[in-house]
Amino acid sequence: MPPKFFSIAALLAVSVLSPSFATEPTVIKLWPGDLPGPTAVISGEEADTQKPTDRLVGGKTVMKVGNVATPQMHVYLPAKEKANGTAVVICPGGGFHILAWDLEGTEVAEWLNGLGIAAIVCKYRVPTASHGSPGKYQGPVNDAQRAISITRQLAKEWNIDPNKIGVLGFSAGGETAARSALAAGERQYQPSDEADKEPCHADFAILIYPGGLVDKEHELNQDVVVHKDAPPMFLVHASDDPVPCQASTELFNALKKVKVAAELHVFATGGHGYGLRPDKEPVTQWPKLAESWLNGQKLLKK
Which pTM was predicted? Predict the structure, then answer.
């Protein structure tokens, strides 16, 4: 089946990298004109930048999409008989240099579809790392919030409950997802069209080895503000991760202080960048724990 494209006012559908799905995703360009916030520092055409010498994860290569100047949302809908109305905007990691497109994007969408959840992989702008903080994450957060609003705009068409839209992110994408969720509906850019009339808050968040949330003393950065309007969160980290596990533990503690429901899993070993690919490390079984949490949040029931 060829890709399906929607003609939405001021939105243009564009071509898509082909993941391993039975059907191609619906692809929507996120912005009708100029992008708000810092743009990507482009050095060439958008492409998979992986090299033969790159490490394998779970015995497989990792697609590393770079030079994303045109942010998009790639929408994967579950089979109608399985759909439960929940949707998740996925933010792949990649250090704000690239996007781990299959490992932390399309493979996650496939898993979520199997649970009856609509999956929206956010191809946010990269690279932005050279902007430093806060510039490196401002544009990606704008892209994630925009994807949430468009998802709500099209919720009825996609059989989605607008009150069951969450975010899920890994590493730098975990920071993007966390900051999008912690904004609690406060849009980080000026509204531009009808889509931006829809709320941009996340109803829940799943953060897997998130980065960028703590300082050198492993305390939450001053600009990571946690208040009672934050959504319920599920967090996973390994204590030997080079990205400090305090990013998850300190966020968990801050959420508990303001009485926001949160679940935290810290494993002794496991490192970083495993996505959903299982291996001998117990941390790679986190999807089962997340499924249980989603069920407890009543997000898997029709």
Answer: 0.93
